[in-house]
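Example record

Each entry pairs one chain with its bound ligand, zinc ion.
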Amino acid sequence: MFCTICQSIILPDKSGAKCTNGHKQTIPKTQITEKNTLPPLPIQVSDGKNILAVHDHVCTKCHFNKAELVEIGCFYSDEDVVAQYKCGKCAHVDLAEGKLR
Ligand SMILES: [Zn+2]
Ligand SMILES: [Zn+2]
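C-alpha cells for the complex follow.
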C-alpha cells in the first residue's frame, strides 16, 4: 500500500497507518487479511415435513402420527364442518373423524 497523497510506503502505526511522510491513512476494510474464523452457519435443511402438521392423527397410508388439519368448511348447511387431516409426511389426506364443532 502507498500513500494516497505522496505515494510513499505506508507503515503500520499503533494509532493507525501512516506513510513515511506522516500522512495518516485510512485502510479500507478489504485490505484486512485477517481470516474469518467463524464457522459457517448451519444450513436449515427441510426434512420435508409439514410444519403445520401438529394434530394427532395417524396417517392411514404411512402411519405418520402428525397431520395438518384442513378445514374445508360447511357443505349445504351450517351443521357440519368438513375437515380433513393432511399427513405431515406423505401429504395423504384422510377425512377427519367425527364432526368438528
Ligand atoms: Zn504521504
Ligand atoms: Zn402419511
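DSSP finds no helices and seven strands in the chain.
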